Amino acid sequence: MRYCENCKVFVKPEGGFSVFWFIVLMIPFVLFLWLIYLFYYLNKGDLCPMCGSKTLKYKPIETPQQEAYDNWLHREKVKLSENILRIKPPTIKLKYCSYCGDRIKVVLEYCSYCGAKQ
After folding, report:
1. Which key words are in the record (predicted)?
2. Secondary structure class of 86 (helix, strand, coil)
């Protein structure tokens, strides 16, 4: 209880800290800070840690091991493509069914279309 000098009585204070209004009032402030950070992050660019310049470029690091691996991989791909070109597809010997005239494999005893014995 507190004494109100206006009313000249003891009263129970109302209000105080409200979590709801705290959150509602903090949202614009937090968004403003995030916008400032976003602006800073997008404008800072890539800086060199040694000299602070913004002249950095993305360039892959070439090492002797990487170059040797790339050469080996290229040779293997060439060998594979040459081997694929040399492979001939298997030939399937066909004959005609004596009953219906459909083409069937030579090794079959029965026609796969009409079922007649060959």
Report:
1. Membrane, Transmembrane, Transmembrane helix
2. helix
Domain positions in the chain: 2-63, 89-117
More confident of the two residues 25 and 51: 25
96 with 84: CB under 8 angstroms?
A: no
Short-list 103, 100, 104, 94, CA closest to 114: 100
Q: Which of helix, strand or coil describes residue 61?
A: coil
Mean pLDDT over 63-88 rounds to 81
Place of tokens 């060439």: 78
CA distances from 57 to 32, 39, 66, 115 (A): 32, 22, 20, 72
Residue 61 confidence class, pLDDT cut points 50, 70, 90: low
Q: How far is 101 from 92, CA to CA, in rounded Å?
A: 18
Average pLDDT (22-41) is 88
pTM of the model: 0.29
What residue ranges in the chain does DSSP mark as E strands?
Answer: 2-4, 9-11, 94-96, 103-105
Q: Which residue has the tokens 């800073």?
A: 40
